[in-house]
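pasting for the record
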Amino acid sequence: MLNYDLPLYRPPSEAENLILQVTLGCSFNRCSFCSMYRDKSYELRPLPVLIDEIAKAAQLDPDLRRVFLADGDALGAPTPYLLKILEQLKRSFPKLQRVSSYAWPLNILKKSRSELSDLSQAGLKLVYVGIETGDDVLLRIIKKGAHAKMHGEAMTQARDVGIKVSATVILGLGGREYWKQHVEGTTRLINETPPNYLSTLQLGLADNVVDEFQQRFKGMFVWQDDDGMLLEQREILKALRPSKPVIFRSNHASNALALAGVLPKDQERLVAEVDAVRAGLKPKRPKWMRGY
């Protein structure tokens, strides 16, 4: 239906929704663990092209309710550009309920409260923020381009204007050396500035970034096995006491264990499920069923 510039990525929860590729690539594109947009340069797609694609999509599905703005960080685009797209989507889809996007924390912080409020009122209702970890040492090692305080401020600013936040944490990101501070920093960040949604996935590296990632750890990175990652998962869940309810999921294809609940209400049950798998009482997801 639409002419996509591949590769194209979207969160698991956007699988059934319209993907509108408003930008190409990622505005930062230097995280050492990420290979998603290494072959693309960040650029805005022409508005006339996007308006034409929206019109074509509306002809096929005028009752569409949800749209995801790709590529890696549509929120890096200028606010007037995004508002024109959101306005066109609202005109074209009368039943539209939600527009969402990936968001690098710095690009949230670059926008004023007024700009974020305008985007929210125009239909941007959810941003996916890859916080990866709440530990500043690890954030610097992996070249995330943001520290923990910036993550917290970005999530707070989005939530304050009515944009929900879905945050992602990567289990195993610190390997065996840094796992405890990874857990401590992450739980501290989530407890202090809770997102609406929190998901975890297990670290996986594409072949073209393995060497770079290892070099950032000075060649000393030692992978966590499934049990180590599940221990991280357990300790994160056990320490999370967010001031607002957080919907938690570990449904990414990389995970050894799929979990779902609301924190802090379901904390004990979620920890018990992890303990049962680590004790061998329940099976892990077979490795042949996993992916990244």
